[in-house]
Amino acid sequence: MVSIVWQIQSKEYRFLKLAIISFLVVLISFIPVRMAIAYIQSPQPQAILTLGSWLDREVFTAQFATKHPRLEIWVSSGTSPHISSPIFREFGIPENRVNLDYRAVDTVTNFTTLISDFKIRKIQHLYLITSDYHLHRAKAIATLILGSQGIIFTPISVPSHEPSESWFRILRDICRSLLWIFTGRTGASFHSQF
């Protein structure tokens, strides 16, 4: 009798597990579809997003922006305005093109804090600028967070002499990105513990 009850519970557990996995797969599979639609609607980038806090990224962005004079620039949690603003002025970038945003506390929130701004402006395609060692993690996060919102990106790397980031950090932030997709929370409070 106990073995029959256990078999029934085991089958119910397997069915529930399969149902949850299937639900998650279907939910995540909408990301490539939304990205494909965004690419068809906006094959060329409409803005520049730089993941900040590194002076070389902002100098690179200012230089890059001179070749793309119609694109609005977003710097997420970059250097302070008294350092950043003169860099853009030096390259002749008008102040009204540059959005310095300091809400993000890490790479995941670099994206989540700006989603509403991009959606208000109907931005569906971004140049994503970050350091070469940081690019794998930034692309993984961007694919999930931006992609889930129908925004695609064209990555641009800034050369550095740093080693690539660990797979642990990439995997951790993929999990945090999925958490944001499903709950609207980033897990930023856990970030400092890892």
Automatic annotation (TrEMBL):
Q: Tell me the superkingdom of the source.
A: Bacteria
Keyword vocabulary terms for this entry: Membrane, Transmembrane, Transmembrane helix
InterPro entries registered for this protein in UniProt: Cell_Envelope_Assoc, DUF218
Q: Where are the transmembrane segments?
A: 18-40
An example Pfam family from this entry, by short name, is DUF218
Any coiled-coil regions, as ranges: none
Which stretches make up the DUF218 domain?
47-166
Q: What is this protein called in UniProt? A: YdcF family protein
Specify the species: Floridaenema fluviatile BLCC-F154
